[in-house]
Amino acid sequence: MIAVADPVSILITGTPAGKWFLYGLLYTLFVGIMGVRFIVKYRHNRYQVVRTLSVIFFQTAFAFIIPQILTILQKPYIDFKNIWPLDYSFFFSYKIQEYLNNGTFGFFMLGWGLALMLIGVPLFTYFFGKRWYCSWVCGCGGLAETAGDPFRQLSNKSLKAWKFERISIYSVLIFAILMTLATLYSFFTEQNSVLGIDTYKIQSFYGFLVGSILAGVIGTGFYPVMGNRVWCRFFCPLAAYLGIVQRYKSRFRITTNGGQCISCGNCSTYCEMGIDVRAYAQKGQNIVRASCVGCGICAAVCPRGVLKLENADPNSRIKTNPVLTGNLNNQ
Ligand code: SF4
Ligand code: SF4
After folding, report:
1. Which ligand is nearest to the CA of 51?
2. What is the DSSP letter of 42?
């Protein structure tokens, strides 16, 4: 199978393909082909068309072509759009050593990763919500929005799922933080263990559980069972980080014109994050939820034009219909 990718690999890198080249090629082709299908389906919606072109571009250029070019130049392989803690190995000793061994370029890589994590995420999320990453840039989001589109209505809308989501996603974030602290401790002290636990074993366990099982097997393999955003909704630690900023300090919200809503429920059915959009629309209440990835499908499928994705004044975050009370934004 790997040999099938040889002609493309030789064209780009001048060398035969390896298994990771084949993986990257298939992933990129999948996003591209299913992305075109998605664009045709939503061709009358500019937001959906531009957003899909964006994820295809970031997957093709940033996740596939640029890393290959860096390999040809004998530079470290890097996906410049990957951000810690999604990029959980960013602080691993061999990576830090790689940055230090690569002079100016290595320092740039280190600085770029830190700047994205510490400045880029809060700043862009403040202005645009987590959609700037989850629905426009991320490779996992790119696959979910294109190849996963036929499954978006399968997301679980129950209260139980929402409660599980809050526990699971923040648990993975805490695990990522603890694993990274152990990694940095080992790097700076040159001790192989923390509190008697082998740091390498913590990293391996994280890689197996989160990287392989939750992100790979369940996160992608279970699209036809649990919907297309299983990973993003329940487990992605970067989505958790972006979500905290979006919930408490962001200009992004979905505004609703409650008077126009006919309660058809299309928005709730097609929300891939399992948000009961209709309940907000019926109350004429703005949607400010940590989990919303700003895919805009709720607005696209609404027959009455009730929903609008906006970046507005953070002080007008919660609008409540004076007749109907109740504050769903506390969820
Ligand atoms: S609320 Fe709308 S924009 Fe947000 S995730 Fe659900 S469908 Fe997408
Ligand atoms: S799709 Fe539009 S009209 Fe239908 S329930 Fe949602 S907001 Fe109301």
Report:
1. 1
2. T
Residue type, 319: K
Minimum-distance ligand 1 atom for the alpha carbon of 152: 7
d(CA 27, CA 64): 9
Residues 41-79: tens digit of each pLDDT? 999 999 999 999 999 999 999 999 999 999 888 888 899
Rg (CA), the chain: 21
Q: Which two tokens stand for residue 65?
A: 């072509």
User: For residue 252, what are the β-bridge partners?
Assistant: 311
Query: Counting atoms of ligand 1 from 1, which one is nearest the CA of 287?
Result: 1
Residue with tokens 């097609």: 270
Give 287 Cα–ligand 2 centroid separation in angstroms: 13
Which residue minimizes the CA distance to atom 4 of ligand 1?
A: 292
Q: Are 164 and 327 in contact (CB under 8 A)?
A: no
Spell out a b/e string for 267-299, using b for 16 or more CB atoms within 10 Å of the CB, else e: bbbbbbbbbbbbbbbbbbbbbbbbbbbbbbbbb
Q: Whose CA is nearest to atom 2 of ligand 2?
A: 302
- Pick out the chain residues at pLDDT < 70: 314-331
Nearest ligand atom owner, CA of 284: 2
pTM for this predicted structure: 0.91
